[in-house]
TrEMBL record:
Lineage: Bacteria, Pseudomonadati, Pseudomonadota, Alphaproteobacteria, Hyphomicrobiales
TM ranges: none
Alphabetical list of SMART domains matching this protein: HTH_ICLR (SM00346)
Domain IclR-ED: 86-270
Coiled-coil ranges per UniProt: none
Start and end residues of each HTH iclR-type domain: 22-85
Gene Ontology biological process: negative regulation of DNA-templated transcription
Alphabetical UniProt keywords: DNA-binding, Transcription, Transcription regulation
GO molecular function, one term: DNA binding
Species the sequence originates in: Methylobacterium nodulans (strain LMG 21967 / CNCM I-2342 / ORS 2060)
Gene3D superfamilies: 3.30.450.40, Winged helix-like DNA-binding domain superfamily/Winged helix DNA-binding domain
Protein name: Transcriptional regulator, IclR family
Keyword Transcription regulation: yes
Keyword Nucleotidyltransferase listed: no
Domain of life: Bacteria
């Protein structure tokens, strides 16, 4: 007997009445769903053809386009298809009900209002960092080096550098080596031994500093959020124009970031252990 999911998937393709681009979107969405349902083992091309009842050239063409967009990934050894990195980004951005993102919203609001500048939440994914949220404060001049959804190699930017610096030395070296080519090509100011030096400075100072290395005049300061096992799970950062992030103000913002990262870590512990009452803030 044919699996109900296969029948459903086939109907999703066969019954579409839209033409052209709309039909292609329907088919692409069906392929994404089928690959996601395949789980960690991935989906074979032959199975996807059978489940959608589309021709091999059509399925292959769509899968190639989805891989190119980062929505799917193909294992070079098994040739099986898996959900790609951009799916992770979209899913993370959409996860506003549970976890780090919603807990951090109050902290981001306080940081942006008390500093007057822009506050950010970032997380690590593989060897990259992803900005999940940007909260702007009342100061009229904004920095525009980071927006929600932006992805950069770990270490590039204040929040990203805070995440990288919180990892063990061996992992730091592996990540920098994995990103060596893209750092040299697109982020030359971070290439070579520069990131290792920045990691050491971050550990010594207790916070990460981006002194306009991504975008001239756009500075930022960041601090890591740790899970109960001590591993980094996210980072809070504040971005401002260069004139608003002198050494004295860095120390002021460091205190704000420490207060809020401590608060986020506490709230996550409370939620994880089923605490029913809030922290009172």
């Amino acid at each position: 007997m044919e699996h109900p999911r296969s029948i459903s998937a086939r109907k999703a393709v066969q019954t579409t009445t839209s033409a052209g681009g709309a039909q292609s979107l329907d088919r692409a969405a069906t392929l994404l769903i089928l690959v996601g349902r395949a789980g960690p083992s991935g989906a074979r091309l032959a199975d996807l053809i059978a489940e959608t009842d589309l021709t091999k050239p059509t399925v292959h063409r769509m899968l190639t386009a989805l891989v190119r967009a980062g929505l799917l990934d193909q294992d070079p050894q098994t040739r099986r298809y898996h959900l790609g990195p951009e799916i992770y980004v979209l899913g993370t951005l959409a996860s506003v009900r549970f976890g780090l993102h919603p807990v951090s919203m109050r902290a981001l609001t306080r940081l942006s209002q008390e500093s007057g500048d822009s506050a950010f939440l970032s997380v690590a994914h593989d060897v990259y960092s992803i900005c999940l949220h940007r909260e702007d404060g009342p100061y009229p001049i904004k920095v525009h080096s980071l927006e929600a959804g932006d992805r950069h190699p770990l270490g590039v930017g204040a929040g990203s550098l805070a995440l990288l610096s919180a990892l063990p030395d061996r992992e730091v070296e592996q990540i920098i080596a994995a990103n060596a080519d893209i750092l040299a090509e697109k982020y030359p100011r971070y290439a070579g031994s520069t990131l290792l030096r920045l990691v050491q400075e971050t550990r010594q100072n207790g916070y990460a500093l981006n002194p306009g290395m991504m975008l001239p005049g756009s500075w930022a300061i960041g601090m890591v959020i740790r899970g109960e096992n001590g591993r980094p799970i996210g980072a809070l950062s504040i971005g401002a124009i260069e004139g608003r992030l002198g050494e004295k103000r860095q120390q002021e913002l460091k205190k704000l970031l420490r207060r809020e990262t401590d608060w986020v870590e506490m709230r996550l512990r409370q939620l994880r252990h089923g605490a029913s009452r809030s922290s009172g803030r």
